[in-house]
Amino acid sequence: MTSPLSNLFVQISINFQLRAYKMQALENDAKKVARLRENDVKKETLLRKRMEQYIKSLQERIVKEIESIDGKKFLIDRWEREQGGYGISCVLQDGKVFEKAGVNISVVSGELPTLAIQQMKSRHKELDPSKGPFPFFAAGISIVMHPHNPHAPTIHMNYRYFEIEKEDGSPLSWWFGGGSDLTPSYLYEDDAIHFHKTLKEACDKHDPNYYPDFKKWCDEYFYLKHRKEARGVGGIFFDDLDNKPPEKIFEFVKQCGDSFLESYVPLVKRRMNTTFTANEKEWQQIRRGRYVEFNLVWDRGTKFGLQTPGSRIESIFMSLPLTARWEYMHVPDKNSREDKLMQVLKHPNNWV
């Protein structure tokens, strides 16, 4: 028969063992969480590298194809950013087909200034400007092509990956953004349909809501409020896309980037040798003026670039055409081809 004192010692021993088991379990859980977090950081770091490799590969493919169409070589300008990172700007000017074409990539890092944080604050509540500046990483590709022929449309494409870091280097916030849009001087409905159909097919492979949502976003974003008209016939646009695992969104971005040549090259080949008049060339220059107005007044990317320390101004303004025109109170003749374009710019169509 055991004594009460023996029972007490047994109970104390059991309690100590249970406590030890609990402490060990907590320690194991903490190690597991730490490993998962470390793996997440490694995944994000790997994604950075893969995005960098992808945009470099896409740049090379697009430059090669456009050179084959134009017959002139791109100027390849490799540069480094003092605050961190580098870029490769590929620019073709005064070619046979293109007045100006740019295919730029940048992979940069550093500290995000207060002005840039304030612009992002409405979309990223976790960013407190008073606690900045924040370390950041960004990798992206930006393309603009302005053909000589007024019947061949201008195109813009941009895809980017962005991270804001915590002190330990893990992402505080991350997202993808970008899109592609078409800006014709003369409306060819079959061109607009082909362009939108190609983008829709790319979107539909990943989410049936992407195309209608991003098409609407594009119509609203590329809009000159002071003129009450769209910049062009639209396309897709998205920003701050982080509502799915990063790998899934990365695959979507690659799908869209890979669709660039298919969406645009057939249109250029179809229109680049079309006969045009001096009046049609003047109209193209007026529409180019609207392009400049949007980029300098409304475009968030331009504003962000100008506010980021160490920005490369030549690369930011690569998107602007070589020539443009502003006429006082210019109004196209009613029912003319120019007027037909204006009606679409004031009332966007659903092309597919």
TrEMBL record:
GO terms for molecular function: coproporphyrinogen oxidase activity. It holds the Pfam family Coprogen_oxidas. Keywords: Heme biosynthesis, Oxidoreductase, Porphyrin biosynthesis. Coiled coil: none annotated. The keyword Oxidoreductase applies. PROSITE patterns: COPROGEN_OXIDASE. It is an enzyme of class 1 (oxidoreductase). SUPFAM superfamilies: Coproporphyrinogen III oxidase (SSF102886). It comes from the Eukaryota. GO terms for biological process: protoporphyrinogen IX biosynthetic process. Its EC number is 1.3.3.3. One of its GO terms (cellular component) is cytoplasm. Pathway: Porphyrin-containing compound metabolism; protoporphyrin-IX biosynthesis; protoporphyrinogen-IX from coproporphyrinogen-III (O2 route): step 1/1. InterPro entries: Coprogen_oxidase_aer (IPR001260), Coprogen_oxidase_aer_sf (IPR036406), Coprogen_oxidase_CS (IPR018375). Belongs to the aerobic coproporphyrinogen-III oxidase family. NCBIfam families: PRK05330.1. PANTHER family: COPROPORPHYRINOGEN III OXIDASE, MITOCHONDRIAL, OXYGEN-DEPENDENT COPROPORPHYRINOGEN-III OXIDASE, MITOCHONDRIAL. Homodimer. This is coproporphyrinogen oxidase. It comes from Cetraspora pellucida.
